[in-house]
Amino acid sequence: MSQCLNPACIYPNPQGTNFCQECGDKILLDDRYRPIKFLGEGGFGRTFQAVDEKRLNTPCVIKQFLPQQTGSAALQKATELFQQEAQRLQELGKHPQIPDLEAFFSQDDRLYLVQDFIDGQNLLEEFQNQGTLNEPQIRNILIELLPVLQFIHDNKVIHRDIKPENIIRSKKGKLFLIDFGVSKETSGSILTRIGTTVGTPGYAPPEQLRGTAYHNSDLYSLAVTCVRLLTGHFQKSDGSDQLFDTNRMQWTWRKYVSLSQELIDVLETMLQDIPANRYQSATEVLAALANQKTIVIPISQPQGSNNLFKQIFQFISPPTNTSLNINPQSSFTEDLGKGIKLEMIAIPGGTFLMGSPDNEAERDSDESPQHQVTVPSFFMGKYKLTQAQYQAIIGNNPSYFKGNNRPVANVSWDEAVTFCQKLTQKTQKNYRLPSEAEWEYACRGGKKTPFSFGDNITTDLVNYDGNDPYNSAPKGKYREQTTDVGTFPPNAFGLYDMHENFWEWCEDDWHYNYMDLPIDGSAWKSRSGSSEKLLRGGSYRDYTAMFWPQGDRGRTSRYDRDHRYGFRVVFCSRTL
């Protein structure tokens, strides 16, 4: 049955008819979109699942503007806000985890917008079907959604309605953020909603309920979403809430769960009532998560035992090398002199599946066979090595595009090794290039998808030639030059620019496939006398984004210099 779009008519219609049998209202919109299912109603109007008859009945979502306000001034303002939502969606829909805007039009004195339909379940439906979530699932939600929030915040938008119903997990497992109907622009114009709720009670932070919102207001709502999915306790229709003590104005969620102290600390920081006491950006939360490796997972108690067992599990990781003097959970900064710093990120050891699966789009045969590799913990440069850092150690700057904070390029493999040797002499720490296994493990950041950002990338996330995108991604910008390190979002480990700017040298010799590759994370140097060395990553100028999946590999002579070749350093006590 399909729902009539006439706001005065509540009668359903047999699916497939063009007009409501009760009021005669046409239900084929713009001569192509046919509503087939009523999804819900909010402050701006109704939402319907539909099909696009001009695109072989492709599923889509229609939002019909149906304001609840009265009076010409209120209606005019509400219309303006609905149009602004469409404009925001047109920009934000470039992100692969935000549904794209397909159309925005008026018909019969009503406004409509049409978006991609995400086939899947929202997180509330997932909870209702599967029960409460555990710590690894919550960590995955944070790691997957925080870059999306950073993207919308970088585009000067605050969502203001983060909750389980507005997060959809597609049938392929990817999370999507939906419903920007109450979002707010932060570019100077304060958009005040008329007659609509700003956010959802039980999720919105205190300042938002008072009419003010900040970027970290979304972080608060995301944390509330997490603790409700962890505990299974949601605010009731009468306003009562088992997770919040209104007498003390404190969250009480911790007594219902058993979690690692690290995740508790992250969620508690996100839940602070005072915005200044929270993380100030989604990137800060990602960095906090990236520096942790201890998680808590319930362990079943053996039958017949009355003892309570500790519920402590370690993130998949081999024993830490005891000769490493620095705490492997603590990142550090190296002083190169004259105010030049080198930030090193702690990468927890772990076991991962290296290479790409046979069904991955645009893969090459040299990415096979997939195999399990165990990588001990190590430290990796937060950014590709910059021109200022290279000059501080070597004394010159060979890069074509100049800038102290831009990555150094035109560096051969031998020159990159020389830099590591001189840095080792200066600091008395064992600096070197990463092995290919270390590089891919660090780039993935725990992901199994083609990119550390998910199944695809856009030029808002990565610097590449957007004229010929990867797989089904939209076309984007072509900047035609490198950008400053840290311009784009980091991955889950807190590493920047792993997919972009230029290719990075690895320690390994080039091999045509992964047969006989070491499984301990060490560099593969078995080709005696070979001058061909390995590159990973991608370049700002390559003609297609097919070069950016985490499994993709490049090769060239160790003596080659190119404005697309650079490197980042690794610190570890073992010698490859």
Description:
The protein is α+β, with helices and mostly antiparallel strands and 576 residues long. The protein is 21% helix and 20% strand. The protein contains 10 helices and 27 strands. It has helices at residues 72-92, 123-130, 135-154, 206-209, 215-231, 261-270, 282-290, 387-394, 413-427, 436-444, and strands at 2-3, 12-13, 33-41, 45-52, 58-65, 101-107, 110-116, 120-122, 157-158, 167-170, 175-177, 184-185, 244-245, 250-251, 294-295, 313-314, 332-337, 340-347, 350-354, 371-375, 378-381, 431-432, 503-509, 532-537, 553-557, 565-566, 570-571. The strands form 9 sheets. Strands 3-4-5-7-6 form a 5-stranded antiparallel β-sheet, with helices on one face. Strand 17 (332-337) and strand 18 (340-347) form a beta hairpin. Helix 3 (135-154) runs antiparallel to helix 5 (215-231) and helix 3 runs antiparallel to helix 7. The longest helix is centred in the N-terminal third of the chain and has 21 residues, at 72-92. Mean pLDDT is 77; it is low at 187-197, 293-329 and 543-551.
